[in-house]
Design a protein that fits this description.
This protein is an alpha+beta fold. It has one domain: 2-Layer Sandwich (Alpha-Beta Plaits), CATH 3.30.70. About 35% of the residues lie in helices and about 30% in strands. The chain contains 3 helices and 4 strands. The chain has helices at about 10-20, 35-45, 75-85, and strands at about 25-30, 50-55, 60-70, 90. A 4-stranded antiparallel beta sheet has the order 2-3-1-4, covered by helices on one side. A hairpin with a 5-residue loop joins β2 and β3. The protein starts with 7 loop residues before the first helix and ends with a strand.
């Protein structure tokens, strides 16, 4: 079951109203503790030298991932989120 897609236009408007780009943005995700899925998610941020931290849940079933990355625009933030939604089971926080 896929989680509901956020309104990209609403997110873009909020980012443009509250942030000044470029900025260090913090992305947060939770996904199943599956090495393949984790690699798919983190690869897109490693390519841009994002700082990635991971923590596994107490049960080991899920992994939370925080990525700090300098972004140049609200469009860049949204593009990263859109790519992440292609990974089954990912939850964006």
């Amino acid at each position: 079951m896929q989680s509901q897609q956020p309104s990209w236009e609403t997110l873009k408007t909020k980012l443009d109203e509250t942030e000044s780009f470029p900025l260090l943005y913090m992305f947060k995700f939770v996904l199943p503790s599956d090495n393949h899925k984790i690699a798919l998610l983190t690869k897109q941020f490693e390519e841009q030298n994002g700082e990635i931290t991971m923590r596994t849940s107490a049960t080991g079933k899920h992994t939370s991932i925080t990525i700090r990355l300098v972004v140049l625009s609200s469009e860049e933030v949204i593009n990263h989120y859109k790519r992440a939604t292609n990974i089954e089971g990912v939850i964006m926080l």
